[in-house]
Amino acid sequence: MTVHGNIIPLKNNILVRNLEKGEQKTKGGIILRDDDGEVHGVRPRWARIYRVGKNITSVKEGQWVYIAHGRWSRGVELDTGEEKFDIRLADEKDILLVSDEKPEAIYG
After folding, report:
1. Contacts of 62 (CB under 8 A, 6+ apart)
2. pTM for the full predicted model
């Protein structure tokens, strides 16, 4: 499904984009599997905040957040007219960490 235009979240919602996907490998060689429905794929993920509702004060647009495993919705493609990307709804109470800058990858 593709949504077109400008999206504004309701007052208590957080929309994120750039959710980490796929298998990752740390610099030390440890493989972090992607969630494939098995315990070994369970891990939190980084995502970038796209928009926040008017009642959200703990995070702001553009920040990077580390979200507890599975505490995000399924993705919907957003077409802004300038770019297309996947957005998801994240729950404020399940945000574990916040960073103003993209976290340095521990992978690769």
Report:
1. 48, 49, 100
2. 0.79
